[in-house]
Amino acid sequence: MASNEEILAGLAEIVNEETGLAPEAVELDKSFTEDLDIDSISMMTIVVNAEEKFGVRIPDEEVKNLKTVGDAVSFISGAQS
Amino acid sequence: MTRKVVITGLGATTPIGGDVPTMWNNALKGVSGARTLEDDWVAKYELPVHFAARCSTPALDVLSRVEAKRMDPSTQFGVIAAREAWADSGITEFDQDRLAVAFATGIGGVWTLLDAWDTLKEKGPRRVLPMTVPMLMPNGVAAAVSLDLGARAGAHTPVSACASGTEALHLGLELIRSGKADVVMCGGAEAAIHPMPLAAFASMQALSRRNDAPERASRPYDTARDGFVMGEGAGALVLEAEEHALARGARIYAELAGTSVTADAYHITAPDPQGLGATRALKAAMFDGRIQAEDVVHVNAHATSTPVGDKPEYTALRAALGTHVDNVAVSATKSQMGHLLGASGAVEAVLTVLAVHERKAPVTINLENQDPEIPLDVVTSARDLPAGSIVALSNSFGFGGHNAVVAIRSV
Question: Which of B253, B169, B222, B255 is nearest to B334 (CA)?
Fold first, then answer.
């Protein structure tokens, strides 16, 4: 079970790997599309990598609800418990 | 009045140089880019061929990690060559709606396709990445180059096996002549040094098995030639309507005087032994460029080093040029860099443009005992080409009976 801090750090690493964005730019209140300029293809790659990293399943229909980094951290945290 | 088309930018990444100046220096020296493959898959799959000619500069030394992640290796090479050619052209201000792309490949995203298939089998469909389709599609390289340059007059991908790169120049010339574009980024890219294509080409007995001496394996016209050496990389050329180039005071390397494409309709892989399709292609390119046999001083031959392929090209050259063929300096540059498949025509066109511009013919290596049935004047040490107006031809032939020729004239 990863803490929220660990999930955020892990997500930041995945986002950095996919987009080159600095990990510290990946903050809880940042919107994936508006602030981080992540397109839908990159978003799906990030989702799949997060599933593997955190051992969770993020259904396709859930992805559109993950507007901010915080949304993703909450969902992953909930899915782990 | 037909629009005259000139070449104003060159780019390449190849087994004998990661940029045009390095490649050209090596091409005049005569080096081999073939090496033993150190990959564990050579032994794992018991491949009969243990060597190939990899690009001398890895794509990741040039591109950022993030941009490379979204490109198949073939597209990575294509974008690297296109960026070099674009910078070399010096074009800064241009009409995006008048810039087209004609960027070829023989095979396309074979690494991406087979990696995704492995992922599907090992990890399931969820792990097959969403970028897989745009990375494996054969038009991926033309699309990436179009996106990179902002070219909006069309992005095309001629696919005709090992004639693809030359066919891209044929298309580029047509796009400018017909008035659909003023500038065309032309080229070819290939990255197929993967165990499956190596196994497949070996299976058809097309590859050299000279495992103990990779650098001596590609030996066009030599009596001991036993197949081609797989290469990889990309070449790119900026074609420009002459009036467009003159208006911006561009440096002009040469004129793309004529091009042609024909089909053998003889056999799916074997070349017509009489070289009839190749002869028609040579004659058509010369007619297209209003070129007489006596104008031709140099040929960059297709010459892959296969036992059956090299001779029909000679037959075709003799049929098209007559006895003047004896006065033509012939270079078989695949002896140095191997066979870049769909990129070979583009890279060899770059070399042919430089040969005309610098008036020097590049070297054919590994010619120890010339096949007496191919009595061409083969350039084995860098040779000066004559002054005055000169023409050079570059030939490419592909599985499927594709023949493509470009004629380059000095300016």
Answer: B222
